[in-house]
Amino acid sequence: MRETLFNWLAADLPGARCIDLFAGSGALGLEALSRGAEHCDFVDCSTAAIRDIAGHLATLDASARAYCQVSTAEEFVKRARSDYDLVFLDPPFDSNLLDPILANLPLRLLRPGAAVYVESAATSPPPIAPRHWQLHRDQRAGEVRYQLFRLPQQADL
């Protein structure tokens, strides 16, 4: 599944600014950095998860290309000031956090043409993305549905 995702994103990664919300192990953001992303913000409410990600970044000599924050995704996006080319959203499936974060992900954080990757339970209804986002890819693997949305290139949306 991860290999498919990064094949989808191959042209987007060089020089990209990413955010890995609900980072967990940080696997998605770390992979993005290893494939040429310029920067990744890692956000998770678990201090232990963020500490582990920081350790992996140090091992990979990538700490200068990342920011690790213990926070809920909702609180982080409320106060964030960066803009991103790529967003990874993989909340715990039983959390009911996906639709609210999609609805409240501020456009000021997303560059025109940004990609938003979403993982959810295959048995759940598909997530509700903002109406101007375009569903670019939609696949399932076992118990997981994974989707890639694209924002329009126009900056005025």
Q: What can you see in these coordinates?
A:
It is a single chain. The protein has a seven-stranded mixed β-sheet, covered by helices on one side. The protein is built from five helices and seven strands. The longest helix is centred in the middle third of the chain and has 13 residues, at 47-59. The radius of gyration is 14 Å and the shape is globular. The model has no long low-confidence stretch (mean pLDDT 92). Helix 2 links the parallel strand 1 and strand 2 (39-44). With 157 residues, the chain is an alpha/beta fold. The protein starts with a helix and ends in a 7-residue tail after the last strand.
Keywords for this entry:
alpha/beta; 7-stranded mixed beta sheet; 157 residues
Number of helices: 5
For the terminal residues, how far apart are their CA atoms?
31 Å
Give the class from helix and strand content and strand pairing: alpha/beta
Note the beta-strand portion: 25-35%
Number of strands: 7
Poorly predicted ranges: none
Task: Identify the strand order in the major beta sheet.
Answer: 3-2-1-4-5-7-6
Report the sheet with the most strands, covering strand number, pairing sense and barrel closure: 7 strands, mixed
Q: Note the overall shape.
A: globular
Mind telling me the C-alpha Rg? Answer: 14 Å
Q: Mean of the pLDDT scores?
A: 92
Element order, helices and strands?
HEHEHEHEHEEE
Instruction: Provide the helix percentage.
Output: 25-40%
